[in-house]
Specification:
With about 325 residues, this protein is α/β, with parallel strands linked by helices. The protein is globular and about 55 Å long. Helix 4 (about 75-90) links the parallel strand 3 and strand 4. It is built from 13 helices and ten strands. It folds into two domains: about 5-50 and about 150-315, 3-Layer(aba) Sandwich (Rossmann fold); about 50-140, Rossmann fold. The structure holds pyridoxal-5'-phosphate.
């Protein structure tokens, strides 16, 4: 378990690296949702997602402990974040990616001087390889969510929200492995427990929803949801107890709802966000909770969407509201 003090310490560690991201709002979105909606804009964060917060906190800690390199297993936002901060503090990062990694993701890691190693097609193959490289190099393996320093880094978003907006009633947070929501839950529930923190998952990747129902970690077969940052097949070992202790509710959104929220934000708010982040706005737009007339922050976790993928998202016919 982590505590608020860990998050306060993380904030100091990462202050010179990250952006304090704004809260955006749209009258039209608020009208549509029947609530006052604010978007915590982590798509405008360094490297394009909140992952830089946890990665910075963890890599700086590894450096203090004498690590000469770091490794991670990810083709996405976590890999970019680890490569970015390792480069910045001057240690080598090796990112283990799937054989079929998209060229643009590979280029992003290499642009930060990260070494790329291709391995298999599943995270079950990549993860042991990243750990093995860490061992060989006297380096440190950086988990995307199941690590106290990662969770504490992500939790700094919770502290920022509390400072940026008075009288928040609820915060909607997307769930993959659960590092983001564990950090935010700790920051919020140890400061102002009356604020509701609601997790959002795609219906097609509802492992955390099912796990909470069954009171144990459930593992699902690989998901193909368009919210590719939320495809993790089960909640983390460290994140699940925090989630179980604090989360107020978990709601599910469909693929079409995610797509519609993505298009709304693009068309009306002129913001490019990624499908994983559109889930929280979808939860507000499609009224997945009983909240009405409340001040809700939807956590927009990132904005890294492939141009190829974007075409598919906007060209699909929409159920106009
Ligand atoms: C990683 C990620 C998530 C999920 O975060 P977890 O800590 O794995 O729950 C959500 N959105 C984006 C954009 C991400 O990169």
């Amino acid at each position: 378990m982590i505590g608020k003090a860990d998050i306060v310490a993380a904030r100091e560690q990462i202050a010179d690296t990250i952006h304090k991201t704004p809260l955006l709002s749209s009258e039209q979105l608020s009208l549509l949702c029947g609530n006052n909606i604010f978007l915590k804009a982590e798509h405008l964060q360094k490297t394009g997602s909140f992952k830089i917060r946890g990665a910075t906190n963890k890599v700086k800690q590894a450096l203090r402990e004498g690590a000469v390199s770091v490794t991670a297993a990810s083709s996405g936002n976590h890999g970019q974040a680890v490569a970015y901060i390792a480069n910045k503090v001057g240690i080598q990062a090796t990112i283990v990616v799937p054989e079929d990694v998209a060229a643009c993701k590979l280029e992003a890691i290499e642009a930060y001087n990260g070494k790329v190693e291709k391995c298999g097609l599943t995270s079950a193959e990549r993860l042991p390889r990243a750990m093995e490289i860490a061992k060989q190099q006297n380096g440190v393996y950086v988990s995307p969510y199941d690590d106290p320093y990662i969770m504490a880094g992500q939790g700094t978003i919770g502290l920022e929200i509390l400072e940026q907006l008075e009288d928040v009633d609820a915060i909607f947070v997307p769930i993959g492995g659960g590092g983001l929501i564990s950090g935010v839950l700790t920051a919020i529930k140890e400061t102002k427990p009356s604020i509701q923190v609601i997790g959002v998952e795609p219906q097609l990747a509802n492992d955390t929803y099912l796990s909470l129902k069954q009171n144990q970690r459930v593992s699902l077969p690989g998901s193909l949801t368009i919210a590719d940052g939320l495809r993790t097949s089960q909640p983390g070992e460290l994140t699940f107890p925090i989630l179980s202790k604090y989360v107020d509710d978990i709601v599910l959104v469909t693929e079409d709802e995610i797509r519609q929220a993505f298009c709304f934000v693009l068309e009306r708010m002129k913001q490019v966000i990624e499908p994983s982040s559109a889930t929280t706005i979808a939860a507000a737009m499609f009224e997945k909770t009983a909240l009405l007339g409340k001040r809700i922050v939807t956590l927009v976790s990132g904005g890294n969407v492939d141009l190829d993928q974007m075409a598919g998202l906007v060209s699909k016919p929409l159920n106009r509201m």
